[in-house]
Amino acid sequence: MKGRDGRQWRRLVAWARKELPPICHICGRLIDASLPWNDRMAWTLDHRVPLTVAPHLAEDPGNLAPAHRTCNSRKGAKPSYQHEKPRQSRVW
Hints:
Oligomer: single chain
Order of helices and strands: HEEH
Structural class: alpha+beta
Number of helices: 2
Number of strands: 2
Largest sheet: 2 strands, antiparallel
Distance between the termini: 50 Å
Shape: globular
């Protein structure tokens, strides 16, 4: 694989956009596919297990999941990440 500029990566991204549901695997919210690529809530493809931990999983479709750009950036290369749930204004 030539990184994220290679033909194989582009094929994986196209496959994921078509086949995977547009739900962020980090926060669980819907991803608006109509947003431009550079919007903070845009669709991105995340490696569930970071490449720093398992570089051999770079092209494994089972290691790929949709995520918001913000969630993906916040997660970074951490092997496990717990998304902070929004705080409720009141306890019901």
